[in-house]
Amino acid sequence: RCGYVVVSFSNSDVGHAIIAFETDYGLKYFEPQSGNEEDVIIGRHYSARAQGFDDETVISAVEIRWNDGTTRRLD
After folding, report:
1. CA-CA-CA-CA torsion sign (59, 7, 21, 31)
2. Is 8 helix (H, G, I), strand (E, B) or coil?
3. Which of 40, 45, 57, 65 is close enough to 53 for a disulfide, judged by CB 3.0 to 4.6 Å?
4. CA 37 to chain centre
5. What are the Cα distances from residue 71, in Å, to 43, 45, 67?
6. Distance between CA atoms of 20 and 18, rounded to whole angstroms?
7. CA separation (Å) from 40 to 15, 70?
8. pTM value?
9. Beta bridge mates, 64
10. Rounded to an integer, what distance in angstroms lies between the CA atom of residue 73 and that of residue 48?
11. Residues 6 or more apart from 30 whose CB is under 8 A from it?
12. In 11-67, which ranges are continuous DSSP H helix?
């Protein structure tokens, strides 16, 4: 299945949207603007250069809205 992912950052009111896929190799996240696979780990810096975010931007929460209508929040 695939999902729309909202990434929230500490010290920021603005988030970022990416996509996720459940695969035979686990959950994979992709930056839709570049097509690159991204590491999305709470407590770490977002690996992609998102416009408007500096290198100090730390992921605080992740919400995945799956295509089957379910939602999963990680924080």
Report:
1. negative
2. strand
3. 57
4. 10
5. 21, 23, 9
6. 7
7. 13, 20
8. 0.85
9. 5, 72
10. 21
11. 18, 19, 20, 21, 36, 37, 38
12. none
Residue 15 near residue 6 (C-beta atoms within 8 A): yes
Tokens of 40: 């999305």
Tell me, what's the pLDDT at 53?
A: 59
**Among residues 35, 10, 37, which one has the least CA distance to residue 26?**
37
C-alpha span between 31 and 2 (Å, rounded) = 13
pLDDT digits (tens, 9 = 90+) for 41-58: 999 988 766 556 566 689
pLDDT at 3 over 70: yes
Q: Which residue has the higher pLDDT, 9 or 49?
A: 9
3: tokens are 């999902």
- The CA radius of gyration of the chain, in Å to the nearest whole number, is 12
The yes-or-no verdict on residue 63 having pLDDT over 60 is: yes
